[in-house]
Structures are given as C-alpha cells and as structure tokens.
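This section describes the prediction task in plain terms. A model, or a person checking by hand, is given the sequence of a single protein chain and must write out its three-dimensional structure as a string of tokens. No templates, partner chains or ligands are provided. The sample shown here is typical of the held-out split.
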Amino acid sequence: MKSSKSKTKERLFIIFSLLPALLISLGIIIYPIINTVIQSFQDPDTGAWTLANYTYLFTNKVSSSAIWYTLYISILTVVLSIGISYLLALFLRFNKSKVARFIGNLYLIPRFIPGLVATYAVMAIIRDSGLLYRLSLLLPQTSALYGFKPGLLYNTKGILLMNLWFNIPFATMIIVAALSGISESLVESARDVGANKFQVFFRVILPLSYKDILIAATFVFMSNISAFTTPYLIGPNFPTMLGVFLRNEFANRNYESAAATSVIIFLFSSVSAVIYLVSNMKEKAWENN
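The expected answer:
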C-alpha cells in the first residue's frame, strides 16, 4: 500500500499538472464571464451598481422585441428541426431501401459547409432576383409560377429556412445514433407479442430515444438563442434577434447594455441545459430504484 506521503506527492503532481489548464480557463472563460456580469449591473456614467440596464432591456421597445423574437425563433426552430429530424432518423434507421442509403450518405453534407458560405449561397437562390426567379422566367408567361419571387429574405421565413438547413443534419445525426442503439431483436419481440407499428413506436422506440431527442433539442436551442450570422444577413431590420441587438449595442458603445444582453443570452442557454440535466438526473434516480 502507498504511504500517506507518496499519496500526497501524487496529488500535488496531479494538481500542478492541471494548473496550467485551470489558469487558462480562468483567464479566457471564467474572468470574462464574471467581468461581464459585474459590468451589466453598473451605471455607464457613474459606475454605481444599478438594475437600470436590465430594466432598459425589458421595457425598451427595440430590446424587448429582440428578446421575445429570439425566443420565438429559437423555440420554433427547435420544434421544426427536431420534428423533421426525428422522422428522417426513423426513415434512415428502419428503412433498408436504396433511397434511405442514398440520403444517409448525403444528409450530413450541410455540416461541412461554412455557415457564412451557406447563407450567401442560399441567398443567391431564394432572393427575389435569384436563381428561382430566373428559372421561373423560362416558363410560359401564362404559368402561375412565371416571375416567381419567393419572398424569403429579410423576414422570419428566411431565418427559419437557414436554421433548418443548419440544424436538421446535426439533430438527425444525434437521433440516428440513438436509434441505432435499439436492437432489432427488441423491436421484433414487441411485434411477436402482437404490438402494431404505433405501439412499437410509443412503447419501445420513443422511450429509448427521448433522452437523445432532449440532447439534440438542447443544443439546437443553445445554438440559435445566440445566433448572429443568419439573422444579421437574412433577418428583418425590426425586430432583430439578440445576437444582432448585442452587436448593435456594442457598436454604439453601450457596453453596459451589451453586457446585460450577454447575461440574458447566457441565462436562456442555461435554462435549456438545466432542463436536460434535471431530466437526466431523474432518469438515473429511476434506474437506481
């Protein structure tokens, strides 16, 4: 057995080995967070402690609209992305056709395209003078689609379209991995005892995959609550999302307001993370019982 002295040396070695990483984390992560929180409670003129920055965010028309608009876009993106991704994942997991294999080889391609490049590429297609419009001009003038203008830029529909482009492949990847862990024998056993497709889904597949659905929803929500590129290039001028509002406040040197906005974005992200952690802890408690 190791002596207490050797154990102490081992512990000190571990601490000193981890110390550089800890100091870096404190310098580039912890300190900026603490500094931002402190600045969000300071008066821009006197430096005194105040709640005025948060009061401004929830009472000013521009900032309050940005908060509710961001929540609306983020929640709607989560619902649509997870719904479509789950259906796609079910198809890829339980369908053995050539079409399923073909889609399975292609659905992750959007994940490898830089966000800015993808946004500009989609803009070139869906703008009112873009590819879709030019293709429609090839149709007879009597056609209902002649001169088709999608109207998908600088509005909510454009943001949702790009959000789905980015998030469906990511959420599908997580859910497909979860569904792949469900053995065929388990599904076949349920069918052998007389369960139909809906019963197999609701009593076998969904209970075994809901945790990963929650993980995917958490990450989709967190990535959209602080989104900047898509809403800045495609979204409307009013209301804006919080990422764009934060950039505008910082550009206008309203640093205390920008700090408060950052804290609010962090809190929104934390709520989704807490929901996932609580759900995960309940599941572990249930398994232990």
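For orientation: The chain has one domain: 50-288.
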